[in-house]
Amino acid sequence: MKKALLVGLNDYPDCELNWCDNDAIAMKDLIETNGDGSPNFDAIAILGSCAKDELLSSIKDLFDNNVDVALLYFSGHGAEADGGYLCTTDFSGRDLGVRMTDVLNIANTSKCKNKIIILDCCFAAKMGEELLVNNHSVLGEGVTIMAASQSWQTSAENGRIGHGVFTDLLIQGLKGGAADIGGNITPASLYAFVDQSLGAWQQRPVFKANISQFLPIRIIQPKVPKATLRKLRKYFNSPTDQFNLDPSFEYTNTPEIEHQVVEPYADELNVAIFKELQLFESVGLIEPVDAEHMYFAAMESKSCKLTALGLHYWKMAMDKRF
């Protein structure tokens, strides 16, 4: 089971934001279901305004369980004083909202197996900034933090796209940009997608974790179906094997199509195999040997072989990891 709390606060007195509610709504819409429409997170949202006591109570409720994944997303103002704050819209004087250290303490003591905290606010990396205290990690087991910016940086909104810069990248990643070949989007792959999309002169995202296993935040349609992916071990008995091709693998190599054809003509079984090999090639798992394209490898009776990435998935297939 998975549950999520998504908070997007705009209505700050004298320092209103514009797109934080859009951020939370878009994130909620995406994580509630997987790419095939199947249920994912049981999610609730707090939008527009929120008092300190309400936010703190909601965060406690989020982490007060033993679900597989509990996810907190916050978009709004952040403050760097006293270890950092998630600012609420009732802030007054030095009482700025919910302290980041309090949020982390709640997550650390939670019985949820995986706790994910995603912050799109200024000074977001204040959360868990002190990684070690007396040689003990401040991050409890199973805690992951994704922060929009360094502990001294602000986090930008972009009116042209109607989202925070960080959250817009999260959205792109959750739609599929951060998915692996199997369609899994994990916190690590999502962060890598965001990190690669932001340059050295922009706000720099931060990733902190104390985990032994990543569970997907969202799953989309895989680039290669698992049943097909498992066939890597069928086509390549060992990592150094080459799969020999000939013109019978190319479906256009048939007398029924008016162009030059060569023997052996297209064979239905080989054509089916070749389509799967071409799918592997399209996602970087195999490559033709001594030929520019798989088509020429077949027509010139050459071969194909595993790439470094293909070897990784071949090993997983042999070990029955998927």
Write the layout of secondary structure elements.
Elements: E1 2-9, H1 20-31, E2 42-48, H2 52-63, E3 69-75, E4 78-79, E5 85-92, E6 95-99, H3 100-108, E7 114-120, E8 132-133, E9 136-137, E10 143-147, E11 157-158, E12 163-164, H4 165-177, E13 184-185, H5 187-197, E14 206-210, E15 218-219, H6 226-229, H7 232-235, E16 242-244, H8 268-282, E17 286-289, H9 294-299, E18 303-306, H10 308-318
Parallel strand pairs: 1-2, 1-3, 3-7, 7-10
Antiparallel strand pairs: 4-5, 5-6, 8-9, 10-14, 11-12, 13-15, 16-18, 17-18
Describe the structure in brief:
The chain contains ten helices and 18 strands. With about 325 residues, the protein is of the alpha/beta class.
Describe this structure in words.
By secondary structure, the protein is an alpha/beta fold. A six-stranded mixed beta sheet has the order 2-1-3-7-10-14, with helices on both faces. The chain has a three-stranded antiparallel beta sheet with strand order 4-5-6. The two termini are about 20 Å apart.
